[in-house]
Design a protein that fits this description.
The protein has 182 residues and is α+β, with helices and mostly antiparallel strands. It has two domains: 23-71 and 121-138 and 151-182, Beta-clip-like; 77-119. The protein contains four helices and ten strands. The protein has helices at residues 11-14, 25-42, 82-94, 171-176, and strands at 48-53, 57-62, 71-74, 78-81, 102-107, 110-115, 128-129, 135-142, 145-152, 163-164. The strands form four sheets. The chain has a three-stranded antiparallel sheet with strand order 3-9-8, covered by helices on one side. Strands 4-6-5 form a three-stranded antiparallel sheet, covered by helices on one side. A hairpin with a 2-residue loop joins β5 (102-107) and β6.
Length: 182
């Protein structure tokens, strides 16, 4: 009587091991973060143009479409701590010709401000307000330094004006700038 020896065979005995070349969500997120780091570090601003809007002034318009969640632009300026920001804001208030492009935010339990009042070639400071804007601000950290960026809050088509909610609802601000109501 012959004894048959049962051998357990594995699929890999017949076929080579296939490894997926798909990236994990963490890898994709890390790549996207590094891509945004590069755009911010190099001051790259693509897919936008500045146009004059009658009765409103300058505005920023999309030249290409942006997908929901996609990086649009950095709100670029001097990164200040609260005390320095308040000092500058008081100086700006003394000259009615000087606009105020200061954005306050919290990072690691501390209040910071990006002061974009100084005129530059950067577009982020010129994006106008709307309560129902197509962009939203987001904190983006590079080597421990916070940066404010604007990302698409919905799909944006070419030729659309880029807008975000400034978030200022104080009575004094609305009296001084009635357009903040909309």
């Amino acid at each position: 009587m012959e004894t048959k020896v049962c051998q357990n065979r594995k699929v890999t005995d017949y076929y080579p091991i296939r490894r997926s070349n798909r990236k994990t969500k963490a890898e994709l997120k890390d790549e996207e973060h590094k891509h945004i780091d590069d755009l911010i570090t190099n001051g790259t601003e693509e897919g936008m143009q500045i146009k004059n809007i009658e009765g409103k002034g300058r505005g920023v318009f999309a030249v290409k479409g942006f997908k929901k969640g996609e990086f649009v632009v950095e709100y670029h300026g001097d990164l200040l701590e609260l005390a320095e920001a308040k000092t500058r804001e008081a100086q700006y208030a003394q000259d009615p010709q000087t606009g105020c492009y200061m954005y306050y935010f919290q990072y690691q339990c501390k209040t910071y401000c990006v002061d974009a009042t100084k005129e530059t070639s950067r577009h982020g400071r010129l994006i106008n307000h709307s309560k129902t804007g197509n962009c939203q601000t987001k904190l983006h950290v590079i080597d421990g330094t916070p940066h404010l960026i604007l990302v698409a809050s919905r799909d944006i088509k070419a030729e659309e004006e880029l807008l975000y909610d400034y978030g200022d609802r104080s009575k004094a601000s609305i009296l001084a700038h009635p357009w903040l109501k909309y």
